[in-house]
Amino acid sequence: MFALYDTLTREVRPLEMREPGKLGVYLCGPTVYGPPHLGHGRATLVYDILRRYLEWRGIDVRLVSNITDIDDKIIDRANRENRPWQDITHKCESVWFDAMGRLGVKRPTDVPHATDYVEQMVRMIGTLVERGAAYTTSDGVYLSVQSVSDYGALAHQSLDDMLAGGGDRDVLGAQEKRHSADFALWKFSKPGEPAWPSPWGDGRPGWHSECVVMSLELLGEGFDLHCGGADLRFPHHENERAQAVALGKQFARHWMHNGFVVDLEGEKMSKSLGNVTNLLDLLDQFDPRAYRMLLLQTHYRSPVKVGQDNIDASVKALSGLDSFVARSAGRNAPGDADTMARFVQIMDNDLDTPNAMALVFDTVRRANIAIDAGDSAADALVGAVREMCSALGLELGSTGEVATDARALADALDAARSAKDFVRADALRAELQALGYVVETTKAGTSLRRA
Which contacts (CB < 8 Å, 24+ apart) does range 192-195 have? Predict the structure, then answer.
């Protein structure tokens, strides 16, 4: 049975589906005010891998991932650039889905936009006010976290230990909050800002409210799995959960969070630290499959370091797999049963992709030996490699033909340098550059990246 670590219970436990064979998943999507960064790329790839594997197992996955298209950051950028806020959201959303397509991420089943659910959010907030769980201040409507008996459960902290404010403590009127951790459900708009009507005054929803409404509307109460990056666990996901509890509704049955992206010095990448790398730069400079390969070789709950060396290593690993696929063309037998059973056992244990990839590479080694020996077992081993890569969303072959050719040229360049045939080495370097690669040579060998 497939099991995942549950952030709420802090244990690896079976992912029990409300309806057998069907999985409802909610993934917090982007706030569309700028280009996607590596953290966005990791989150979407992790859950794409989860989705593809479970679909390969025969499960019908409905993935709902929202678009936050109204937010303070969007309004701030629109004001700075003197542009309509809708112009920013439309263009940034287009860039987002283009990047996800280049990463090989399947489009979500549903892509709800926050601005399409404002009326439902107003109704939800009204219910919270009627229940005494929310109250009005001079700048908006806030949820009283003291009305939620287990507030902090997802963060594994008591209310007294909570970080203050959830991002709303510095706005006008925040001094009127009953508790420092109370958070905005509705924000009154300033002159010239986008606004929707409500019983309390024109304004816009708070960030923490939209996902509650959209997940319950599209997936229903007690939906199976709520996902996102570890940075969303608190306050965002805790505040989502708190609203559902205050409404008396059953929310997500299982919580899944992926780890941070860190730079090579070990710092978490974030805008506040100024070390966020634009995902588009990675996609432009390298084989887009390289990021998936890197993440497959890192457990989803662990931090991952992204830099030139490990992206180059991922590109090289892809080139090796592409070469294997080219070598084994025409061998179309079903995957070796023992290998596939082992693959399922590994993946069912908390989406253990590092060990799954180790099995892939070991199977490639065994298949190459069998091909060289003329062993009849080769076809089933080749089939297993292809099935495993397909289940992981790792497309091989045609996507990597140029990379395979380039890797062969790079190997020839290394051989020429070792033989001190620098005229040939220079010619090979020029050929690689003509193919669109930046060529870097070190004692460890030649590395390539897209120019």
Answer: 193/75, 194/70, 194/75, 194/85
Supply the CATH number for residue 159's domain: 3.40.50.620
Mean pLDDT over 12-38 rounds to 96
Cis, peptide link before residue 235, omega less than 30° from 0: yes
Residue 235 maps to a domain: yes
The total number of residues shown for the chain amounts to 451
Co-location of 256 and 284 in the same domain: no
Q: Provide the sign of the torsion angle of the four alpha carbons 192, 196, 200, 205, taken in this order.
A: negative
**Radius of gyration, alpha carbons of the chain:** 25
Helix axes 337-347, 353-373, angle to 10 degrees: 170
Number of compact structural domains in the chain: 2
> What number of other Cβ atoms are within 10 A of residue 52's Cβ?
19
Distance between CA atoms of residues 372 and 393, nearest Å: 28
Q: Which of 383, 293, 378, 298 is nearest to 334 (CA)?
A: 383
Task: Please give the Cα distance from 426 to 449 (Å, whole number).
Answer: 17
Give 169-219 pLDDT, tens digit per residue. Answer: 444 445 789 998 999 999 999 999 999 999 999 999 999 999 999 999 999
Beta strands in 99-210 (DSSP E): 134-136, 140-143, 183-188, 203-205
Distance from chain centroid for Cα 102: 14
Looking at beta carbons, which pairs linking 158-167 to residues 24 or more positions away fall under 8 Å? 163/234, 163/235, 166/208, 166/235, 166/236, 166/239, 167/207, 167/235
d(CA 404, CA 289): 13
Distances (CA, A) of 190 to 19, 171, 323: 45, 12, 60
Q: Measured between alpha carbons, how far is residue 422 from residues 22, 369, 436, 447, 449 in Å?
A: 60, 34, 21, 17, 22
Same domain, 103 and 149: yes
CA atoms within 13 A on the CB side of 94: 5
Q: In sequence order, which residues have a C-beta less than 8 Å from that of residue 320 and are 6 or more positions away? A: 364, 407
Tell me which residue range forms the domain holding 361.
Answer: 279-400
